[in-house]
Structures are given as C-alpha cells and as structure tokens.
Amino acid sequence: MYNLHDIVEMKKPHACGANEWEIMRVGADIKLTCQGCGHQVMMTRHDFDKRLKHILRKASEQQD
Known about the structure:
DUF951; DUF951 domain-containing protein
C-alpha cells in the first residue's frame, strides 16, 4: 500500500519524460508531484489505483 511522500511509478510517463511521482496528499483524491518538472496533478483514488505501476521508494526508507 502507498503512503504520503512515497515515490511511485505510473504506467505512462509524464510529458516531460520523467516517470517518478511523489504522493503529496492521500484521501478521496491523490495529489502527485512530478519529480522531473514539479508539475502537480490531482486524481481520484480509483484512477490512481488503475494507473499505478509500482512503488519505487517508501517514505520510511528515504528518511533512514
């Protein structure tokens, strides 16, 4: 399962070419920030679950 500040990979890359996104908000909607250009996107949890490929780095691993 995903949590706040996890870095995830989506099925399709962003227009800038990067495919790493940081989860900035978790709730009924998910807010993502592109790690390449900083663009922010909000989508429903249902859409996010369909488009998620896998979790690259957990937030708990980044702080160690």
